Structure formats: structure tokens, C-alpha cells
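Lab notebook, bench 4. Still working through the backlog of constructs that have no structural model yet. Next entry is a single chain of 292 residues. Request: give me the C-alpha cells for it.
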Amino acid sequence: MPTTHLLLALSVVFVWGTNFVAIRWGLDGLPPFLFAALRFALSALPWLLFMPRPTAPWHKVAAFGVLLGVGQFGLMFLAMRSSISPGMASLVVQLQVFFTIGLSLWLMKERVRGFQIVGLLLALAGLGLIAANVDATVTLLGMGLVLSAAFFWSLANLVVKSLGPVNMLHFMVWSSVFAVPPLFALSWLLEGPALMRTSLEHASGLVWASVVWQAIGNTLYGYGVWNWLLARHPAATVTPLALLIPVFGMGASALSLGEPLPGWKLGAAALVLLGLAVIVLWPRWQARLGAK
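Model written out:
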């Protein structure tokens, strides 16, 4: 991979990792479901006016939008409101990798391989360490909500895997439309019209900047550049860089929000990331050894 392409990939990982701090800033002024609804509304408009409809069935476009918008981001924003810190959320949500693999094995009847079991056990050990040290930065409720968000993310991944060749930037923009109505409905029912109105009236510039960043930086730039790179390089070259997302997430949360990083957090992060690394990198290492 050329240096310029590597820097582009790192910029996306940086955006996706530090985005958890931006989410925290947004939640300081907006309730979770309203925040998520605005994020996806700005991911769709006005961009869909200039982008053609993706070459994918409507039911898959809609399913992806609802799974990602309501299932992943709605639940994650709800957790991050008061039940888990940005740094820990950036780590726990990466367990979507294991959910995705598990669902793929179950639905496609593939055989579970030894390195996948090792990776899962390492990640579960890290998760157990987090559960044993619940504090102000992570609660069992927060961890449960983010794990649920990771599960819905994995379901969204399966939708993507079933698409075949498709322009993912166009797909992201159009699928965002289907996330907006259920998120606004949940905000109206659970957060109430009065809170929705007062939150919009009193939202600060930083809160609105966070909403815009979710739509443009996280969605349009992040997914656009990432998929541009995937179209030009093997997935095994690009995807391992995503392991840096929790590193940027935890580092940004510590620097910007003062989130403490005691030894147990670093140990849990090391176990989860090591488990992810085994899952993602082992086939590549094995292929290299076989080629020698």
C-alpha cells in the first residue's frame, strides 16, 4: 500500500476512533434517539439529491438503515448517555467482529476453526475483566447496551455481505433515509416532544458540530474513503487497521474528557484487541507461512 493510501486509511481510523468523543459532546445537549435521528437525517439530505440510488434491493437498503441506525447507533447513544464512557464503548462495540463471524458460521454452516475459538476466548476474558470492574465509566447496563449495538451492527454486516458489488457511499446515503422515521418515533415516544423541542432550542454550536461530524466525517468521509481503499487493495491489507479504532477511542477519551485508564482497563483492552488480532490476522499469517 502506498504511503498516501496508508495515511488515508489511518485518517479514517482516527475519525472513527475519536468520533466517540464527538458523540459524548453531542449527548451533552441532545437526547440519544433525537441525536441519532438528526445524524442520519444529515447523512441522507441533501446528498441523496445528487447521488443515484444504489444497485441493491429496496428491502436490503431499508434493513441496513434500520439495523445500523436504530440497532447500532440508537442503542450505543443510549448507553453512552450515562452508562459507559466513550473509550470503553469504542472497545466493547468492536466485538461485532465475533458476532458477525458467529452468525456467518451459523447461517452458512461453516466449520469453526481453532484460531477463531482462541480469539473469542481472549476477547471474552477481556470482557470478563471489564464486567468485574464496573465503575463510573462502565456499568453492566452500559456494557449490555453496547453489546446489543454490536450485535445489530453484525446483522447490518450480513446485509452488506449479501449485496454483491455496490457503491457503498451511495448505499450509506440512501439507507440512512430509513433510519430517520423510527428514530424520530422513538424520540417522540420515549424522550417526549417537550424535551425534543427544548433540546433543539438550546443546543450549542459544539452539539451541532457533533451532529454534522457524525454525518459528514464519520459517514460520508469515513465510509467513502474506506471503501475506495478496499476497491484498490486486498481486504487483508486494509481491514487490520481497524484494530486501531479502540486505541484512538480510548486515547481521545482520556485526553479530551479525562477518562481514567487504570491497569484493568488497559489489560481488558489488550485482551480484546489481541483476540480481534488473532481473528483478523491469523489467516494472513498462515498464508504467508504456507507460501514459504
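Notes after review: Residues 3-291 form one domain. The chain has 13 helices and no strands. Flag for follow-up if needed.
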